[in-house]
Design goal:
It is built from 4 helices and 28 strands. With about 450 residues, it is mainly β. The protein has 2 domains: about 180 residues, Sandwich (Immunoglobulin-like), CATH 2.60.40.290; about 200 residues, Sandwich (Immunoglobulin-like), CATH 2.60.40. The structure holds 2-acetamido-2-deoxy-beta-D-glucopyranose (NAG) (9 copies). The site of one 2-acetamido-2-deoxy-beta-D-glucopyranose (NAG) has 8 residues, from β15. Keywords: Glycoprotein, Signal. Belongs to the COBRA family.
Length: about 450
């Protein structure tokens, strides 16, 4: 045993440690980049809401602008009570008037005599008008109570717009100042908006389609969503069953909170509680969630049942249940990731659209209700669920019921990540072996690499 031998050994080992270190690092980076809590959503990497500010004409003391909110997110919509948009004026601008929207406060306009502005606040907060607004107070795409559909579900209604007449502002493209600090609420937190940027002026086609007009100046503001900013706890969970195993794998306990009668009495309500009707018929209407007591305490549960096995096909039943007594989910949607979605053959009573953000990988589906049939997921109670069956054609190479393959990899409800049971709890095939828990295997590999490296250098 010579000295050089040990040296070579050390070199080989340190190279091995270096390589595995890099590999581990990469794995960790990927794991973090794909974590659903960040602003980046792996299933909708380009999703955003863009606010477009088009100056249509100059006025004696400012300008007239049309502000358009476009939702480019595949499956995240804004439901009632709708969006709120705020910003900070750069100088001493005021809003003379608005069409198709209004500010929530007028602010202090005491400096004005005669013609009083609509809003004198430095930080105006704007909301959409309600449906039924008289036609002479409307512009195209306004007055939907702040509701905006998602891009994949209803691109025609994935937009909202209003007109604003700004005074005390610049009156040329060199003196006008962009408002700052845009905030978009939907209606709660979750969106972060970037700075306004000057972009190529928008073009508009006249209604007869024979002439194109152009804005004098256009600014864009891009807002992105983060579930982490929106809420601290998850809002939905997944439970699983199969025809080949009697076990019901429930939502993990306390997924969305814990039932705690001692420290927080009244956090949930039993379905047979005598006080339930009085909690629902409050005046004015209370919008705070009122959740039916369950071990998981989630407002939404998605149940995936592997129902039948045919020679060439297999069938799944999906049920979405609402446990919130104070919420009707209009235009609800779910997004499900499962490797067999490239071969989904039939879907009953749900609309389907494949989502393929990475080109060829066709394993993600967006599902939503059929208009006027089940596009509204009703409040908790007898009617509070919707269901569908999916028929998949088997791919002989990959199909198996082993190791929980028949269950979804990821599920979203209205764009929020749902908590799945741990993989080692999935129903087994009789005599099957459970799939190893990824976390444990990963930890084992990490500790093996670390200890091997330590040993090599000791
Ligand atoms: C916003 O979304 C649109 C449509 O997906 C995309 O083309 C654009 O690049 C996005 N903008 C940003 C800043 O991500
Ligand atoms: C500005 O936003 C509009 C939609 O609101 C979009 O069509 C356009 O591509 C955006 N421009 C830039 C440069 O991002
Ligand atoms: C203002 O408009 C003029 C004439 O249309 C143009 O040449 C100039 O680049 C514009 N300036 C800015 C800051 O947009
Ligand atoms: C905009 O927000 C940033 C950070 O919240 C703050 O520092 C800045 O003063 C705000 N600007 C205006 C004009 O309110
Ligand atoms: C909470 O209280 C309700 C009614 O008083 C009761 O039915 C339920 O079992 C209690 N839950 C817990 C976790 O103690
Ligand atoms: C949900 O919709 C039903 C039927 O339209 C209505 O009776 C109920 O009040 C609604 N519930 C809520 C919480 O808005
Ligand atoms: C994905 O698979 C579905 C179901 O077979 C098919 O209808 C769809 O065209 C596929 N999409 C792409 C982009 O391959
Ligand atoms: C099902 O998958 C197989 C293998 O990937 C493929 O050859 C076949 O075309 C797919 N069938 C459909 C209907 O997409
Ligand atoms: C069903 O699956 C569970 C795991 O969720 C397992 O403990 C049980 O043994 C399985 N039952 C049969 C009959 O294999």
């Amino acid at each position: 045993m010579g000295f050089s031998d040990t040296n070579t050994n050390m070199r080989v080992q340190s190279r091995w440690c270096f390589t595995s270190g890099i590999l581990l690092g990469l794995t960790l980076i990927i794991a973090f980049a794909f974590s659903p809590t960040g602003a980046y959503d792996p299933l909708d990497p380009n999703g955003n809401i863009t606010i477009k500010w088009d100056i249509m004409s100059w006025t004696p003391d400012g300008y007239l602008a049309v502000v358009t909110i476009n939702n480019f997110q595949q499956y995240r919509h804004i439901q009632s009570p709708g969006w709120t948009l705020g910003w900070t004026w750069a100088k001493k601008e005021v809003i003379w008037s608005m069409v198709g929207a209004q500010t929530t406060e007028q602010g202090d306009c005491s400096k004005y005599k005669g013609n009083i502005p609509h809003c004198c606040n430095k930080n105006p907060t704007v909301v959409d008008l309600l449906p039924g607004t008289p036609y002479n107070q409307q512009i195209a795409n306004c007055c939907k109570g702040g509701v905006i559909a998602s891009w994949a579900q209803d691109p025609v209604n994935a937009v909202s717009a209003f007109q604003v007449s700004v005074g005390n502002a610049g009156t040329t493209n060199t003196t006008v100042r962009l408002p700052k600090n845009f905030t978009l609420k939907a209606p709660g937190p979750g969106y972060t908006c970037g700075p306004a940027k000057k972009v190529r002026a928008s073009k508009f086609l006249t209604t007869d389609g024979r002439r194109v007009t152009q804005a004098l100046m256009t600014w864009n503001i891009t807002c992105t969503y983060s579930q982490f900013l929106a809420q601290k706890t998850p809002s939905c969970c997944v439970s699983l069953t199969s025809f080949y195993n009697d076990t019901i794998v429930p939502c993990p306990a306390c997924t969305c909170g814990c039932q705690n009668n001692i420290t927080q009495p009244g956090t949930c309500v039993e379905s047979d509680s005598p006080v339930l009707p009085s909690l629902l018929n409050t005046s004015p209407k209370n919008l705070a969630p009122l959740i039916q007591c369950t071990p998981h305490m989630c407002p939404i549960k998605i149940h995936w049942h592997v129902k039948l096995n045919y020679k060439e096909y297999w069938r799944v039943k999906v049920t979405i249940t609402n446990f919130n007594y104070r919420m009707n989910y209009t235009q609800w949607n779910i997004v499900v990731q499962h490797p067999n979605f490239d071969n989904v053959t039939q879907l009953f009573s749900f609309n389907y659209k494949p989502l393929t953000p990475y080109g060829k990988i066709n394993d993600t589906a967006m599902l939503w209700g059929v208009k006027y049939y089940n596009d509204m997921l009703m409040q908790a109670g007898e009617m509070g669920n919707v269901q569908s069956e999916l028929l998949f054609q088997k791919d002989k190479q990959t199909f198996t019921f082993k190791q929980g393959w028949g269950f979804p990899r990821r599920v979203y409800f209205n764009g929020d990540d749902c908590v799945l049971p741990p993989p080692d709890a999935y129903p087994w095939l009789p005599n099957g072996s459970p799939s190893p828990r990824v976390g444990k295997v990963f930890l084992l590999i990490v500790s093996l690499v670390v200890s091997a490296c330590l040993l090599a250098f000791l």
